[in-house]
Amino acid sequence: MRQLEVKTKITSGLSVFIVQILTASALGVIIYIAAQQSAADNITVGGFVSLFTAMGLLFSPIKRLTQVNDKLQQGLAAAQSVFNLIDQASEISPPKGDLARFSGKLTFQHLHFAYEGQTSPALQDISLSIMPGETVAFVGASGSGKTSLANLIPHFYSVTEGQLLVDDVNINDLPLETLRANIAIVSQDVVLFNDSVAANIAYGAMAEAPRDKIIAAAQAAYAMEFIEQMSDGLDTPIGERGVKLSGGQRQRLAIARALLKDAPILIFDEATSALDTQSEHKVQQSLEKLKQGRTMLIIAHRLSTIAKADRIVVMEKGRIVEIGQHAELIEKQGIYAKLYQVQMTG
């Protein structure tokens, strides 16, 4: 920011300097011509003085116009960003259908994915079936493709090659409204609004949810224990981005949202990585409630949080390298066992 500000000031100063030099040069030429005219008695002394005074008065307006150009250029640069966003193509969605409830089955068939403008693929030849009600954890080093895989399920990005099926239907054939109504996401960075606790649990499509359902969701997420200690309970404002809450409390509100939505597919994206041990324990208790009867995908760096998963999928450089339960993968002494050993000894 400092370097950019210095660059802006230098550019602005140079533009004013150059314009004033040009103006002064032009004024000098005009005075020379006027002096020649005066020597030849083609112009009176009063006319010469009037012309010189008028020319001198042009300096200040020209300088102000140069400064206006600085603001104009900054505005054009900002406008370019705004119009680039406005001009982006809207998401393509098949015609709306009935908001049917999915069973939660997910099938990846030789799936490949690459981000726009990237030469190397983020995901390569992913083949995996997740049955309804199954809890599957995805682990691996940063950049292994875990979050990329999760972002394909709600169709935030389109599959480059292969197929992603939800309840044996290609995701490209499902209306976005129907697809996303059946998916709940709990991410590490919880988005909260400067509103009451109740409004943050029930927002968007769930804004008209009955009070008793909001309370039930908060209780199931183990959030009522801190909500009841607030001055106005569920009606207590939590500040911009939930600044009045701790990290664990914000996560439990996010889980309460997912419980209220009651979606059959839940994506839990590294939501406990920044929590202390006590907060993580509370969130884990909430998860045990949340995963009942739902297909759950858990992305986690802390391997201790996924030991109870039905299956653990180990990813490396966009590929699946190991699949199995915690005990099986430890016995294999492969990549998962090494990751687990590093975390336990670290």
TrEMBL record:
Q: Where are the transmembrane segments?
A: 12-33, 39-59
Task: Determine the domain of life of the protein's source.
Answer: Bacteria
Q: Which GO terms describe its biological process?
A: lipid transport; oligopeptide export from mitochondrion
Which GO terms of the molecular function aspect are on file? Answer: ABC-type oligopeptide transporter activity; ATP binding; ATP hydrolysis activity
Q: Which InterPro entries match?
A: AAA+_ATPase (IPR003593), ABC1_TM_dom (IPR011527), ABC1_TM_sf (IPR036640), ABC_transporter-like_ATP-bd (IPR003439), ABC_transporter-like_CS (IPR017871), P-loop_NTPase (IPR027417), Type_1_exporter (IPR039421)
What Pfam families is this protein classified in? ABC_tran
- Domain named ABC transporter: which ranges? 106-342
- Write out the GO cellular component annotations: plasma membrane
Q: Which SMART domains match?
A: AAA
Q: What is this protein called?
A: Lipid transporter ATP-binding/permease protein
